[in-house]
Design goal:
Elements: E1 4-8, H1 12-24, E2 31-33, E3 39-41, E4 53-58, E5 64-69, H2 80-96, E6 102-105
Antiparallel strand pairs: 1-5, 1-6, 2-3, 4-5
């Protein structure tokens, strides 16, 4: 199953740059970027760190898209997909909601 977050309104590259900048500056404290710029949710006490990754990409139709990828084991722990997608949507709405026209999770 392929799990995606797709959104319009913000230019993909400017949205990705804003997310990375806000993580570096400490404005977003519940997400981190790895060396490949994939995003992982930390949760309380790093409970979810590296248990999944949101990989940014620009879809063929020009929409900002993030794909949820499993950890290196290629297996998600039970419930991780829902936690990551929900917390990711929450972060986007809280920090960039004024720049998002619509968002869908599939």
């Amino acid at each position: 199953m392929r799990i995606l977050a797709k959104l319009t309104g913000a230019t993909p590259s400017s949205l990705y740059e804003a997310i990375y900048r806000d993580i570096r500056n400490g404005h977003i404290q519940t997400w981190v970027a790895n060396k490949d710029n994939d995003l992982s949710h930390t949760g309380e006490n790093n409970r979810f760190l590296w248990k999944g990754f949101m990989r940014p990409m620009t879809a063929a139709d020009g929409t900002a898209t993030f794909e949820l990828l499993p950890p290196s084991s290629n297996v998600f722990e039970h419930g991780i997909q829902g936690i990551f997608m929900g917390r990711f949507a929450e972060m986007l709405i809280n920090h960039y909601g004024n720049n998002i026209a619509w968002m869908t999770m599939t």
